[in-house]
Write a structure and sequence with these properties.
62% of the residues lie in helices and 0% in strands. Among the domains are: 1-36; 53-223, no CATH class. The protein has helices at 3-14, 24-34, 53-63, 65-84, 91-97, 107-140, 147-157, 165-177, 193-204, 206-209, 226-233, 245-250, 262-274, 280-300, 312-317, 321-328, 339-359, 367-396. Helix 5 crosses helix 6 and helix 7 packs parallel to helix 9 (193-204). It is built from 18 helices and no strands. The protein is an all-alpha fold and 398 residues long. The radius of gyration is 23 Å and the shape is globular.
């Protein structure tokens, strides 16, 4: 008996009136993951399109593959570099990674070492978040939405490799429940769930999410990120720390699991634009806001704050800017939905991220908070855009 026939045979048990009726969302989740959904609309109107929710979510996950691969390598590279400098490998993950040695010049050793930190975080995210998704789907008697596959991957990639697994579980629980499900689930949330969970951890457990010792998973290692160095001594100090623009562009610097490579994020962005999953107006607006506001601050200057002198091309390659631009700014549910609103929404993020990085010394990153801030104002932006269109059309008929 084939898998398709097996699912068809057991399906009546999960339908209304069946003995496992309450578990239909779980059945539907597994069945629709393996096969195209059989459900069709019963009444007009019909909109025919090759794009469905599953295809969209699959495309987004595929777009993250370059970030995953470079992130795995870089996580292992940073760890193996620290071990090569004289620090001792500790923990079961480092022990397993020792199968391939700790040579930072060995790509396979770097990749496998990074995998030992990525997998536990991702599996914890998938299991805990999946339990919440199935629980809410069962209570509400609807299918399990594929959106969680994207949320789980993005959430994993924006965490430091050293994040304790219990905090990983707590953060994804907060993101899924309070960032999405309390508003009705996928498509009804106004905050990005992955960023909501990450922000919760950032404010609840700052010692695990920031500082000099959380970016490289080797006990005893301490090293500031490029943004922290720039905030302290200016962007010109990066060269003295061995951080180049091209190294930052390709992702060979310290940072979260999948955020360090601008190159990988651009590959993912190009794929999302080519498949029309991402809207280019959001990207243009964000880049325009970042470039315009950073140029303004460069002109103003400051004798006490070296971040005023950071040029826009450094803002783009540092921190989570490129990753956020590719996968968070373009997230269709929590962004503005009008064309003009998308420009404004993107520009608001671009301005805010520079403002937070430069003017607020407590938050050297900025992209996460800027996106969440814009999420809140997205409905208001669309409202004013729609009202402006109504007034303009009304004047034409006067």
């Amino acid at each position: 008996m084939g898998a398709r026939q097996f699912f068809d045979r057991i399906e009546p048990n999960f339908e209304k009136g069946g003995k496992w009726e309450k578990f239909f969302p779980l059945y539907e989740m597994v069945e629709s993951f393996l096969y195209t959904p059989k459900t069709v609309t019963k009444a007009a109107p019909h909109a025919r399109s090759f794009v469905d929710m599953k295809r969209i979510m699959t495309y987004v996950v595929l777009a993250t593959i370059p970030c995953i691969l470079i992130g795995l390598w870089n996580t292992g590279f940073q760890a193996n570099q620290a071990i090569a400098s004289g620090l001792e490998p500790t923990g079961w993950r480092a022990g397993i990674a020792g199968i391939f040695g700790y040579n930072p010049a060995n790509p396979l050793a770097n990749f496998f070492h990074g995998l030992m930190y990525f997998l536990p975080i991702y599996i914890t995210t998938l299991v805990v978040g999946g339990i919440w998704e199935v629980l809410f789907a069962t209570i509400r008697r609807h299918e399990v939405n594929e959106g969680f596959l994207v949320t789980s991957m993005l959430y994993t990639l924006i965490l430091p490799a050293t994040t304790p697994l219990w905090q990983v579980a707590l953060g994804i629980s907060f993101g899924v429940v309070l960032g999405k499900e309390v508003f009705g689930g996928t498509g009804k949330n106004f905050l990005n769930p992955a960023l909501t969970g990450r922000a919760f951890l950032y404010f609840a457990y700052p010692a695990s999410m920031s500082g000099d010792s959380v970016w490289v998973p080797v006990d005893g290692f301490s090293g500031a990120t490029a943004l922290a160095i720039s905030a302290r001594d200016g962007v010109q100090a990066l060269a003295g720390e061995g951080i180049s623009w091209w190294g930052s562009f390709f992702g060979t610097i310290q940072g979260c699991l999948g955020e360090t490579s601008t190159f990988a994020a651009l590959l993912g962005m190009a794929f999302l634009l080519a498949t029309r999953i991402a809207n280019w107006r959001l990207i243009v607006g964000c880049l325009a806001g970042t470039i315009g506001f950073s140029l303004l601050l460069n002109i103003i200057g400051s004798d006490t704050n070296p971040m005023f002198g950071m040029p826009f091309w450094w803002h783009i390659v540092l921190g989570g800017y490129a990753f956020g631009l590719a996968f968070m700014v373009t997230e269709p549910v929590s962004a503005s939905h009008t064309n003009m609103g998308r420009y404004i929404y993107g520009a608001l993020i671009g301005v805010m991220v520079v403002m937070i990085r430069v003017i607020n010394p407590a938050f050297p990153e900025g992209m996460m908070l800027a996106i969440l801030f814009a999420n809140i104002f997205a409905p208001l932006i669309d409202h004013f855009v729609v009202q402006a269109n109504i007034r303009r059309r009304a004047k034409r008929h006067v």
